[in-house]
Design goal:
about 290 residues, mainly alpha, MetI-like fold, 13 helices, MetI-like_sf
Length: about 290
């Protein structure tokens, strides 16, 4: 952002008739003329004390600004995350167990989903289901749990569609890899019912790679909400990030970037903690080492 053309002081001034002297006053007031390293060090020191600074654009505390918008974004991320995990898992399993026409159709569908940009999906959903059919509202996050879910259904689908395809690909590959393992063939040879073979020997041994990619995908959803929240008029962290980048609101952008990094760390930590439960072989390897 520091290399992007433009001066934050001109956005703060809000007028094209501002004199250079007035711009200098604004730069001094908000420490915009301080060296980059000094500004970053001061910001980091404030973060360690729970102070993320003051928004240049909104003139209010950054943590309060983010906190007021976080519920909408978290609801959207959880909603989309569930769609991604369930949809990707089911599609991958169905494709792996039905090699042939069904597999080819699903592969074609997920390839199309992965290749379609989020904003294109959002525009199509708005045009068909909001403007055309009127089944869902076009903008806003709604009030109350049920109303909020109704308002966030189209944004969640737009956010999740391409990532469902990505998770489905990984899931299918993992399931196919375990379909013809020796222990699976032995179980089938002993007459174990197919549903038990799938559940105990194929699905469980395939969950490791799926959990890893799912953790990364869910953590990255906060950044992906930028386009979706802007398209659907949602007052969330993603739209705040977009507006802050456009106005070069450094404190807000830095705080949201830190939030995204924290989300990745938390999700990866949770996946690492769950891995021995998902795949007991990992726990055995760790004990052996």
């Amino acid at each position: 952002m520091y290399l992007v053309p433009g001066d934050p002081a001109t956005f703060l001034a809000g007028s094209t008739k501002t004199t250079p002297a007035q711009l200098d006053v604004l730069r001094a007031e908000y420490h915009l003329d301080d060296p980059l390293l000094q500004r970053y060090t001061e910001w980091l020191g404030g973060v360690l004390h729970g102070d993320f600074g003051l928004s240049l654009q909104y003139k209010e505390s950054v943590q309060d600004l983010i906190a007021s918008r976080l519920p909408t974004t978290l609801t959207l991320v959880v909603y989309a995350g569930l769609l991604i995990l369930v949809g990707g898992f089911v599609l991958g399993l169905v494709a792996a167990l039905n090699r042939g026409l069904v597999d080819k159709i699903i592969l074609l569908a997920i390839s199309a989903a992965v290749a379609t940009p989020v904003f294109v999906v959002g525009v199509l959903l708005l045009a068909v289901f909001s403007v055309g059919l009127g089944w869902f509202p076009a903008t806003g996050a709604g009030d109350g749990f049920a109303d909020r879910l109704w308002h966030l259904t189209l944004p969640a689908i737009a956010l999740a569609l391409s990532l469902i395809g990505a998770v489905a690909r990984i899931s299918r590959s993992s399931f196919v890899e375990n379909l013809h393992r020796d222990h699976v063939m032995v179980a089938r040879g002993r007459g174990v019912p197919e549903n038990q073979v799938v559940r105990r020997h194929i699905v469980r041994n395939s969950l490791g790679p799926i959990a890893t990619i799912a953790g990364l995908v869910v953590a990255g959803l906060i950044v992906a909400t930028t386009i979706v929240e802007t398209a659907f008029g949602l007052n969330g962290v993603g739209s705040l990030l977009q507006a802050s980048v456009a106005k070069r609101d450094f404190p807000v952008v830095q705080a949201i970037s830190l939030l995204v990094v924290g989300a990745f760390l938390v999700c990866n930590t949770i996946v690492d903690m769950l891995y021995p439960i998902i795949d007991p072989r990992v726990a055995s390897w760790r004990k052996a080492s």
